Amino acid sequence: PGRQLAVTEAVLAVLRGDCPQLARASVALRVVPGEFELGWVGPIAYASGLAPALQANLSRDEIQVRLALLDAALQTAHVGIVALASTAQSQALMDALGLAQHLLARLRKGWNASGLWIDGDVAVQDAAEVEAVEQELLYRLRGIHSATLLRAGKLPAGDLQSLKLLGEQLGV
What we know:
Blueprint: H1 2-15, H2 22-30, H3 38-50, H4 60-87, H5 91-114, H6 127-152, H7 157-169
Helix pairs in contact: 1-2, 2-3, 4-5, 4-6, 4-7, 5-6, 6-7
């Protein structure tokens, strides 16, 4: 039941968003390999294939720029988390940063699996899917800050300020 709930929450998050399409929900479920069971992902992916195809909102050049920015943001987030972890004093902050590292590693897995980090033009037929993958990874990168704050709970002022700076690095 918990895994089904996770799939449902992910799909509903997309359908409540700016691009409420099944194809976009399918991308959200597939962006991090192994995150959701294929038995739950398959029906959504199948249904999205029956719906109208995604349309890119950005030009291929704009998508390339955004992919480069996402790659840089993932790297910056990693550096920021490692730097903050090396100076963390409280156990709550260390636990929160451990969660941030875990979530970032999952995003990096999705980024690496997508192959979008490879320099090259985005094919016209792939532009909408690539744009959706970029948007989902960026959405999740920003979500790391919220998850980290929730995990940390009440923090001393200095630790809270450090987490706020990390949030800025995550693009929040």
